[in-house]
Amino acid sequence: MATNGPIDTLAPGHESDNTITRDGFKITTRKLPILKAGPIEEMTTKLGITPPEMIFGDNLASISHPSSGWSITFNAFDALDRVDKTGAAMLKVSYSKEWQQNRQKQFEDIKEVVKPFDWSYSTDYKGTTLDCPAFEPSNKPIPLELLRRPDPILFFDDVILYEDELADNGIAMLSVKIRVMPARLLLLSRFFMRLDGVLFRIRDTRVFVEFATGEVIREYTAREEKYETVRKSLAGMREDVLALMRDPNRLAENLSIVGKSLERLVLK
Amino acid sequence: MSIGGSDLDKAIQQLRACRPIPEAQVREVCYKARELLIEEGNVVGVDAPVTICGDIHGQFHDLMELFRVGGDVPDTNYLFMGDFVDRGFYSLESFLLLLCLKVRYPDRITLIRGNHESRQITTVYGFYDECLRKYGSANVWRYCCEVFDYLALGALVTGAATALEPTDSPYAANTTTASVADIDQDIEVETLNADGEVLGRFARASSESNSQSQQNSSALPPAPDNVGAAGTGASGSSNGSRRNDTGAVLCVHGGLSPLIDTIDKIRLLDRKQEVPHEGAMCDLLWSDPDEIDGWGLSPRGAGFLFGADIVKVFNHRNDLSLIARAHQLVMEGFKEMFDSTIVTVWSAPNYCYRCGNVAAILELGEDGSNAGYARSNGDGSAAGFIGAGALGTSGFGGNAYSQAFGSNTLGANGNRRLSGVLGEQHRLREGPGRRYRVFEAAPQDSRGMPAKKPVAEYFL
């Protein structure tokens, strides 16, 4: 039974952490089911916004360097705490205008938008770190050529932090991938959002660690494009456009870069 | 050429094995189903006993598990509240099996429409792609969409018993005595695991014992009748007696609509069309309850949210004791809100094969008799599936009840506000006895399920 039991249904408290230690760096991932009603309520109160429908509040991915005390962790709460809670950055679904016009004639008393916030859960989260030692702005990019080499992967995981179906108007998803090779590691935290008929967003945070030198590079790239523009640029392809629109790896090149930052620190 | 009894039984056998049936047969079944569904009103009348199920989303193997836990058709009378398709890998097999069962046993299974039973949604969320992949053309998808247009918008369950006859089965290993009410009490809610073992049992809070029961973690949140004396005048002091004055239960996929104040207004809609982007039909399939006063607009710019006062006034006006709806994922499989006047039932365990949630079905017993619960528990082979497993200690013991049932946030304030709305002479019906069977995802087999371990990739 144990070999083919239901996946991912461990209750919190069970040993569910995957870890690997390499040259003084400890890498940890934790994957648990979505939160229960109680913890969701607690999170709602603390955040001040309704969490996404699929909220993996117990999941995390972290890189720590015990000898220097440095660490970087990716978790759902801290990511959601950076979502706009005022409604200033609020998007509207594609048929909103039509819907509102018809509604307002009939129900002039129902005008109040309940608890406005950025329900697309767009976040510019770059991970949770301590301030010391701190990242500093840098011009040195992540050495992609080293990452393209087929070095053996000693540890790999893909951890989802949250996902929302935007009430069947698209998808919003934040997940973290990490791969550890003998000499270095790469972590990618990706927020992907498609609001059907309106907008695409991809916000990537990459963390690169070179074990031998203790060098850590963090790169943040925000991409955005109108839905129609992306659809048109994909229309010429022979592939299934719907499938492409679910695949951020393929979409990224079709989205314009709207924000970028590069930081670095060296751990002793 | 018409699909007769034995052909249909063969199709059902084939679909139960998760094998698609030939296109010609799909066309035939869909035609038969339309003929049946066109005779149904927008709101189908259903007699208790009935087992109410929420979203399935193409999780075929979990649908099989649901039938194992809840009993097979036609032994059990089922009501599915929509969202049969999309997201999962086997929308086609799941929907066609339910449809064949509907054609074969029309009085033992009721299907109502979810927001995913729509052309537009299925082209984006998987069902269309699946049909194309499995048949090489969109014909089957088109046949199914024509059936979608004929599905009822809601169901009205009558004759549900107020009191539950406690299940005669052992407690689950991790059930604590604190979560199990004395069986001599008037049992309102019982939760069982997939093997029929008792996880929790909760007595109805009577008006007299209300102040005590609120402090007792094993008791229910205040029953609706505590806003005044109970229902029909005969039941004001009915502590311990078996009452049968429950109102009807409205089942709908999403929720209420500001355009609908009576169930008769649902009956007047022209439903035989694609789900529109606005209007009452759209609201019934899309709206959500929320902790607000009155009606609210969703921050998304389309869609309604409705609060406790809306539900209570609607239930009172329509002589309902409960609204059962689906549409929203809940980790515990079910979630009661607003003093148990509305419940969300979710029947897709481990949703999208990654959420790790449990699923639930809701059984309503028959008024005056408990024949509907004469069922055997555990068929040997199934024993030990849950074992000491995933419900774990954090599942349904102790205060998990209050979690699963929502936090009863209205409290005294909510009731005061409500009594203002309803006036002193108006009272709410007592809720029906509710038995929730909670189950996990079927064991993952090798057929196209995502691997437990993610495959290492050289991402950049």
Automatic annotation (TrEMBL), chain A:
Segments passing through the bilayer: none
Superkingdom as given in the UniProt entry: Eukaryota
InterPro entries reported for this sequence: Phosphatase_reg/MetRdx, TIP41-like
GO terms under biological process: TOR signaling
Pfam families documented for this protein: TIP41 (PF04176)
Region (Disordered): 1-21
One of the record's GO cellular component terms: cytosol
Family, as annotated: Belongs to the TIP41 family.
Protein name per UniProt: TIP41-domain-containing protein
Automatic annotation (TrEMBL), chain B:
Matches recorded under Pfam families: Metallophos
Domain of life: Eukaryota
Biased amino acid composition, Low complexity: 206-218
Limits of the Serine/threonine specific protein phosphatases domain: 112-117
Region (Disordered) residue spans: 205-242
Keywords, sorted A to Z: Hydrolase, Manganese, Metal-binding
Gene Ontology molecular-function annotations: metal ion binding; protein serine/threonine phosphatase activity
Family that this chain belongs to: Belongs to the PPP phosphatase family.
Name of protein: Serine/threonine-protein phosphatase
Organism: Delitschia confertaspora ATCC 74209
